[in-house]
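User: For this week's homework, look closely at the record that follows, marking any run of repeated tokens, and judge whether sequence predicts the tokens.
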Amino acid sequence: MSATLLRSLAEIVGPTHCLGGADRAPYVVDGRTPCGVVLPSSTDEVARVVRAAAAAGVPVLPWGGGTQMSRGTPPRDGALVVGLRRLARIVEHEPGDLTATVEAGITLEALQAALGARDQWLPLDPPTPGAATLGGVLAVNTAGPRRHGYGTARDLVIGLRVVAADGQLIRGGGKVVKNVAGYDLVKLYIGSLGTLGIIVDATLKLRPRPEAEGACWATFPMLAGAAEAAASIAASELGPTALVLLDARAARAAAAGAGLPPSPMPAVLVGFDGLARAVAWQGDETARRLRATGAQAVDVLDAGGTARALEAVREARRLLPDPIALATVGVLPAMLGAYLDGARMTAEAAGFELAAVAQAGQGQATLVLAAGAPRPGASTAAVLAAWRESARAGGGHLALEWAPLSVREACPVWDPPGPSVALMRGIKARLDPQGVLNPGRFVGGI
């Protein structure tokens, strides 16, 4: 980074919030060292920083809590990190309307604590909420086990404000739930990995805090039986907020983390929230149906046990010691059990261990790969490639969420792009013609 640009950035954010030396170390991604790190404290400062970087021809790497920076193709060396942790205010909270406008740098944990003071919450439970920021969660569109009942960030955001590649401030959506004016830019920016704009604040749909929470944890002799039971619950009138299928290895680790009885069997976790009487009925009826579909054992959990179980399955990366890769897969829900069985056999044949956690109702799974002994990167890449081929053969997809750089160089992060990539490139060219924002990290090198 030129001395001129460094001085300009320091004037914008203040010298103590412009990092250019060894203090850049926490922001190194895949061996790529940023030319500098700036930590603006306002939307105006973000806009001015982006304008200065664009004028100097320096790519910009948006940064929230850093929890999802392993996603995507490795960044350009010498990019400018724009960290949003100082934009962490709740701008406006309307409890009567169940909405809040919040800056992007607030962590999910801090946001839930603030909303909880008014007996409200955002029904979004991504991994590592103590570090993950709202902006980062929206940029990646990540979610946790409650996705089954509440959806993802795309379902919970009413409006956004975004700093574009030229420094302009763009507003999408609005501040009321029934907003139908204009193009739905909100869904365009959510999940775009910061390649179209830097999210600086969002208006969110909230929920009242539920009166009660509960869950059932059921173990099954075979994964196929567990998958069939989960499918039966998904198709029922029970209305769970969480419906998670775990293979035997993931179930063993999650049970230990949740304080449940250990069992070397696959498991299904079904969660509920709402009125206390309704939750009690749902738990009892779900337990009855799980037993009827062949469950070996069923534990009906109280609120504390439910919270521990949901946290254990949410943090998939912790399910195996020293994981060497983590992938997310989408297949048809009816194919989920067979796909996970095949993925396990592929991993074990190559000398690896697999732990799988799946959103049974959506056919989305997180696959955690580990090895008892060091394995060549090519072997890891071969397993991932086989998983991808199997998913794509059934009309699904696989994205490599995390792995060492050597593995990602041998096995692409993204599936081969389909025909829609031309439209995506056209949107990128319109919104970021100079390729300033997170260039090359998204599907098809966008």
Summary: The longest helix spans residues 276-292. The domain at 212-314 is CATH 3.30.70.2190 (Alpha-Beta Plaits). The chain has a mean pLDDT of 93.
